[in-house]
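ARCHIVE CARD
SHELF: 3
SLOT: left
DATA:
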Amino acid sequence: MQIKDLGEFGVIDILTRMVIEQRAGPRNAQSFSFNLMVDNGDDTAAWNPGGPIVNELFTTDTMVEGVHFTRKTTPWPDLGWKSIVSNVSDVASMGGLPAYALVTLGLPPDVEVADLERLYQGMMEASNEYGLAIVGGDMVRSPVVFITVALTGVMLGQPMLRTGAQTGDLVAVTGYLGSSGGGLKLMQSSRSEKGEAADYLRLCHRRPRPAVAAAKTLVEAEVSTAMDVSDGLADDLAKLCKASGVAGQIFADRLPLHPFLSSQFPKDCVDLALGGGEDYVLLFTGHPAKINHVVSELPEGAAVVGEVLAGEPGQVIVVDAQGNEMPSPKRGWDHFGTNRR
């Protein structure tokens, strides 16, 4: 069997089981009282460095030319921004704040130094915006450009996890869905759209803004189950439901769609919200009274979008306003699936 037959998340499941089942244990870390709190399988790992309050987070993400971006659709400064904030979003999804980053660059030898400086300009803008520091890294020769960022984070209290959803919980998001996918669709088409709506959608794709402030609101409200929407709402809710041993449904008529997305893609806006990816809003669940209250405290775009059901773990259906099941949405991002961008 090849990895393309199993898909990205099937491969991740195999490797996660191997890492957990076959490792001897973090003996060196335990000598210094680094107690692992969140293992493989969530948005970040988390450990307690020995103190009673502060916990540390650690995550990493890679962007590869031709897989995650092209130079045509993503200028160098925006590539730098996205490489940082994709990791910031993972830390925020646990309820933490970003701290220190290491950056590994894979570069063809013909990359212009001026372009590399523009890349780091975007990285520094994102780092300064979200209060983290780049403290080192590595550089290697590569046939295509790739960027790997490893990011640590810190937080007070317990991290929000994917494993706490319960039957009867509501599902909500902290902001608009599908705008990043709409921006990418616009740039990949032959349409040379101009104006406020087109500019907004392109900006959502090139300069997404992770929900750091919203994460703080969730933590203060004692929300315990969350993750970020990076691969598309339908797929990400399926991951959360599988981790929690439950099923879920999405209310298509309640998806928060920005008016600019609806105006540019009236027929595709729902599919973009369900499977567009790279929105970097937070998806969270909890008791209906709590979730309705939290949503009312969040900025415009936050909405209840579904509920948690008993059923096959990881199964997610989409229903219309009358409660009728709709055709399965287009899948979100899978590195080894047939839907590669």
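SLOT: right
DATA:
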Amino acid sequence: MIKKLIGGETIDVDCTVEIVNTFESLEAHVRFNDGTTVAPGDEVLVHGKPIEVPYGERQEFERRATVKRAGIVERLWTRATGDFEFMELCEFSFSEERL
């Protein structure tokens, strides 16, 4: 029961890392090959050397990843504070413009 509260379970999985570095988009996605999913508060560490994708290209890499599961307390905290952290990323602009 205590372990579920504080978390700490780790699993190692194979994954595919997709990197897109084009004029239209700069993206990085990790897809777990066995269908593993992550939830709020979980941590993912992708192993291997740093990935560099030249401008204008899209590439995929096969890697190994470690997923550390969050406990109930950490999961609730992440959900409760996540909206506030998201708002820090938003930029608001108000202008007074009269026609």
